[in-house]
Amino acid sequence: MSPPATAVVRDRLRIAIQKSGRLSDPARAMLASCGLSWRESRDRLFCHGESLPIDLLLVRDDDIPGLIADGICDLGVVGSNVLIEQGGERIARGLAPAYRPWRELGFGGCRLDVAVPDDWEWTGTAQLQGKRIATSYPSILAQWLLEQGIDADVVVLSGSVEIAPRLGQADAVCDLVSSGATLAANQLKAVTTLLESQAVLAGPIADFKDARGELAAMLLRRLDGVLRQKDSRLLLFQAQRSQLAGLMRLLPDVEAPTVMQVDGGDSLALQALCHGSMTWQRLEDLKRAGARGLMVLPVERMLA
Ligand code: PRT
Ligand code: ZN
Fold first, then answer.
1. Which atom of ligand 1 has the smallest separation from the CA of 185?
2. What is the CA radius of gyration of the chain?
3. 3-state secondary structure at position 275
4. Same domain for 121 and 206?
5. DSSP classification of residue 256
6. Residue 77 Cα, ligand 1 centroid: separation in angstroms?
7. CA 233 to CA 58: how far, in whole Å?
8. Calpha distance 122→116 (Å, rounded)
9. 39 and 26 in a common domain
10. Domain assignment present for 4
11. pLDDT digit string, tens, across residues 181-196
12. Residue 41 and residue 124 in one domain
């Protein structure tokens, strides 16, 4: 008699990241700053996690959503442009959603824009009616055209989208743009944005039910700390108690400050976590409002 079937319990987490490309270095750096380290394998497709039972699979970015959907990888670092496009394709094929963005990672920023030849006098999206638009993002583009009530031909290309108008393959393009240099070099101009994209940590729709759940929760905790830390500085200064209310009005973006009484009198020492930039101008304003001994310190590590 064969033994009873048991559910496969996985106790290591596998994260897919781009093998080589714009997202590979920042993805590794971000995971490393969460305390992960790996032993590189010779084929460099799989990196065994050393500090934690979290392994990396190095793949093409386009394969990442499918690897999560198939359960080959648990999580992945991928552009939201790819995640949304492939999510839309799944729905069009009648498949259930299989992944979702778990965290925005703050790198790999770009826009998905419609661009037209420089010499078009742009009057609005209605101009795209009946035109051919080349793109590698047919699902996002088709959905947008539907919302705009525009009937246009979507020409699907896997690369070199920007030269399609010059080659006579299309009238306009819908492609990723960061600096805009590629569009300019191809005598195109961006006229409207369909999507603002950045890299995300993608994962399955539901949480993990086995040991991977604990690992994923720990990774997210550390990731949240890293993301907050990147955007945070510690502000230290002294002030008189009577100046406190005025100073706090200049600091709407600080978390509840720690206020310590100095010398048992009216003199206070304050420390506050600030988000965003703490410019010279802001320090000057604080000084004018009575702050003394202002110091802005970097934050090394955070855990809520
Ligand atoms: O081999 P693999 O399939 O893994 O890599 P890939 O060539 O498909 O991807 P890669 O490394 O080019 O991009 C990976 C991800 O980076 C994308 O999915 C986006 O989420 C993000 N990203 C950010 C960009 C850009 N910026 C970007 N500018 N991806 C592509 N571009 C291209 C764009 O397609 C155009 O050709 O860069 C050109 C435009 O750049 P600018 O600066 O001239 O505007
Ligand atoms: Zn790709």
1. 43
2. 25
3. strand
4. no
5. S
6. 14
7. 34
8. 8
9. yes
10. no
11. 999 999 999 999 999 9
12. no
Which of 140, 177, 183 to mutate to test ligand 1, by most ligand atoms within 8 A of the CB atom? 177
Please enumerate in sequence order all residues whose Cβ is within 8 A of that of 51, keeping only pairs 6 or more positions apart, or say none: 35, 36, 37
In this structure, what token pair is assigned to residue 258? 């720690």
In a domain, 155, yes or no: yes
Q: How many domains does the chain have?
A: 3
DSSP 3-state of 22: coil
163 with 284, same domain: the answer is no
Dihedrals phi, psi of 56, to nearest 5 degrees: -115, 140
User: Which atom of ligand 1 is nearest the CA belonging to 18?
Assistant: 4
pTM of whole model > 0.90?
no
> Both 96 and 218 in a single domain?
yes
Residues 125-177 pLDDT 10s: 999 999 999 999 999 999 999 999 999 999 999 999 999 999 999 999 999 99
Q: Which two tokens stand for residue 277?
A: 């930039």
CB contact at 8 A, 225 and 219: no
Is residue 121 included in any domain, yes or no? yes
The CA distance from 161 to 18, in Å, is 21
Cβ of 175 closer than 6 Å to ligand 1, yes or no, is yes
State the ligand closest to the CA atom of 137: 1
Nearest residue to 85 (alpha-carbon basis) of 8, 172, 154, 160: 154
Structural domain containing residue 143: 110-197
Domain boundary among 197, 216, 247: 197
C-alpha of residue 150 to centroid of ligand 2, in Å: 28
Cα–chain center distance at 74: 18
Atom 42 in ligand 1: which residue has the minimum CA distance?
179
Per-residue DSSP letter, 261: E
Q: Give Cα 242 to chain centroid, integer Å.
A: 43
Determine whether the shortest distance from the Cβ of 178 to ligand 1 is under 6 A: yes
Pinpoint the alpha helices (H) of the chain: 24-33, 64-69, 80-92, 138-148, 164-167, 181-185, 211-230, 244-249, 280-288
